Amino acid sequence: MNLGLGRREGEMLKVFLQSVASQAVARSKVENPEVLESLATLFLQAYPEAMLSKYSEEELVERILKAYQVSRLRKEGEIKIDSVRMDGYTLIFIDNDDQPFLLDTLKLQMEEMDVPYDLYVHPIITVERNEKGELVRVAPSWEEGSKESLILFETRLDPSRVEGVKDRILTILRVAKDVVGDFVKMKRRLRDAINDLDFYRELKGDPQGELEETVAFLEWLYDRHFVFLGSFYLEDGGGEEGGLGICRPQHRGVPDLFSIDGLKERLSKEPRVFRYTKGRETAQLYRRSKLDVMAVRSFSEDGEPKGWHLFFGLFAKGALTEKAEGIPILRLKLQRILQSMRVVVGSYDYKRVVMLYDLLPLDELLISPESEIEELISTILYMGREDVVKVFQRLREEYLALMVVFTQEKYSARLEEEIEDRLEQLVQGAYIESRLFI
User: Within this chain, do residues 104 and 119 fall inside the same structural domain, yes or no?
Assistant: First the structure.
């Protein structure tokens, strides 16, 4: 019977949840009923209230008992995953140590594997387990103790695909565990790279100020503007060592995680001490975007280049909202562009150039030479209200950058969708990342 919980409020909802939890305890006949009751209550509280009206008490009891079955016995650090076919859905249950970007990664994997889901439930719980790994206490997340994430996805997954999906989730969660475990080590490696470059700057001098800007940019990355996913050290002879995160040796065979095809050769010819590029792969953790790759030169004690510190990850969301005019390296580029365009400081054109510069994507500003950025800004600056459409395309090492520019009066959500649809047809299913700037 559907209980119509959309109309339940306050005490009625509380009574309903207690009733479901009590039924789950009565059905299970467990030795520690208080543990199951606590788990059931926290599990039900994690459901969106509006969605509870979809289920009968019996259906919710079945879900609680399955969640308890998955989490009842778990060794330290173990990733538990199981599935069951219920009410026409394939339910996937996961119990894992709580960790950063866990849910984001799982949702990303569902999208990557084309697994449609109608609902996810994600209670974070405080647990206590005995030496066998059995649950002896469950409490809300704000209480002291070990934290676990209990996650349920209600999917419309074809049963024939279930095992493959579970295997992929398990693989990615193992990678994610190593990424989180290596995070501090990767930050330490970046600190070493900063010190290395700063030493080189003091040793060789820096008349143009470019090394100082590069060091400042790396400090900016270090200051919570970069999500580290992987790192390793590349010797000039091609040898690799110190793989961390997604770059650990045991993850090299994981499909679509990362690759360095072509990167070694390009770095062998790179005259600069810092290189930013986009990875070929879409990140499999955190959020859906092409990997950001940083390469920083390392030097011997006499200042001779000997290898590269490589970092794979994504710009933090906060970094993408910062104004480029204040970001190291980019602020130096902007000053050179302003000088080249000969705009008067404080003038209307000066403010327009800075505004347009700040609107451009961070990754494109880092990759593009100043001449390309200046050409783009100049074209937009002098378009005025002309009834024209300008298309700029730049073929990069790992991707094609395409920018469509037209007056604001022409814009509509429908037009944006039509442009994206047309591009998807042209690239035949290849990954497209689009951004709108008004």
Answer: yes
Q: Is residue 438 part of a domain?
A: no
Buried b or exposed e, range 153-171, using 16+ CB within 10 angstroms: bbbebeeeebeebbebbeb
Confidence of residue 431 (pLDDT cuts 50, 70, 90): low
- Cα separation, 328 vs 378, in Å, equals 23
Residues 175 and 205 in one domain: no
Q: What share of the chain is helix, strand, coil (3-state, %, to 5)?
A: 45, 25, 30
- Assess if residue 222 is contained within a domain: no
pLDDT tens by residue, 329-340: 999 999 999 999
* Rounded Cα gap, residues 58 and 266, in angstroms: 61
Domain edge (last residue) among 294, 314, 334: 314
pLDDT in tens, 33-80: 999 999 999 999 999 888 888 888 999 999 999 999 999 999 989 999
Distance of CA 438 to the CA centre of its chain: 25
Which residue, chain included where needed, has tokens 């894992």?
Answer: 96
Average pLDDT, the chain: 89
Beta bridge partners of 390: 405
With 0-12 CB in 10 A as exposed, 13-18 as middle and 19+ as buried, what is 320? middle
Could you tell me if residue 29 is left (phi over 0), alpha (psi between -120 and 50 degrees) or otherwise beta? Answer: left
Q: What is the pLDDT, as a whole number, of residue 2?
A: 46
List the structure tokens of 186.
Answer: 């990767």
* Amino acid identity for residue 312 in this structure: F
Has residue 278 been placed in a domain? Answer: yes
- Compute the average pLDDT of residues 111-126: 95
Looking at residue 37, its pLDDT comes to 93
Indicate the pLDDT class of residue 353, thresholds 50, 70 and 90: very high
> Which structural domain, as residue segments, surrounds residue 200?
183-217+228-314
Contacts made by residues 49-52, CB under 8 angstroms, sequence distance 24+: 49/5, 49/13, 50/6, 51/119, 52/5, 52/13, 52/16
Specify the number of domains making up the chain. Answer: 3
Kindly report the CATH number assigned to the domain that includes residue 286: 3.30.450
Helix axes of 162-181 and 102-112: crossing angle, nearest 10 degrees: 140
Is 294 inside any structural domain?
yes
Quote the Cα angle for 17-18-21, to 5°.
Answer: 85
What lies within 8 Å, CB to CB, of 420 at 6+ separation is 432, 434
